[in-house]
């Protein structure tokens, strides 16, 4: 879901959605909270308040004014969306959305303007996509007349965010897309984002890891030890070989990953290598357990005295 739409597309989608809602005598509501980071779920990375990141202790790599980035330099804000049709289903939300996004505090925007621009662009994309999906789900509820059921629960399209690391080198965070449009359970998809805080550029896995095949082998070992052999689809080795392959179109390695101050974590969404019931699967490799795997780029500097 790495789609970077322009602001013009955002305005076009917004116009179309509200025009359609008006044609159906419906309504769409949207408001923004200041973002405590509460995703409204009881599990998964969406419940982060951004407090897991550590403060940066080095000022030499910070911006021109010496501003120091940390997890506390960002807020997790939420755009609340709702879709309804007052003529057909009065006072009833047919679909809702909670779209979380990262916002850099005002004090850091001058020193980290490139990063701020990337986050603002992602915010626009996430909200535009959220408006589109909530409208789509609301129309489906109308067409299928699911809203007439006594046990009807509004369809939803949500995005939750967790900050993994924020310092003078990089910003690493995990997004969860969580959607429900009927059925037994919602669907979820996870994607890690890793940005150079000075340039705003995406950091590729091979910039951090020197040997991708060796990483794949270690990830397989970790997964089997953590979840057991019966927790995956058949031929886990083949699945991982495909998962770690080079994506020619995107020109990146495919795995979803995040980097903390101590480790690299590879994340697998439901259905990628195991059934839905397995949930989010993760393999964590600490820097000190396999130092030969890492290039040294974007690793935190050693603590004083070490």
Given the structure, what is the number of helices? 5
Give the number of DSSP strands.
Answer: 11
Q: Supply Rg.
A: 21 Å
Strand order of the largest sheet: 1-2-3-4-5-6
Task: Kindly estimate the percentage of residues that lie in beta strands according to DSSP.
Answer: 25-35%
What is the succession of H and E elements? HEEEHEEEHHHEEEEE
| N- to C-terminal distance | 41 Å
User: How helical, in percent, are the residues?
Assistant: 25-40%
For the structure shown, list the relevant keywords:
alpha+beta; 11 strands; 28% strand; single chain; 3-stranded antiparallel beta sheet
What would you note in describing this structure?
By secondary structure, the protein is of the alpha+beta class. It has five helices and eleven strands, in the order H-E-E-E-H-E-E-E-H-H-H-E-E-E-E-E. It starts with 6 loop residues before the first helix and ends in a 20-residue tail after the last strand.
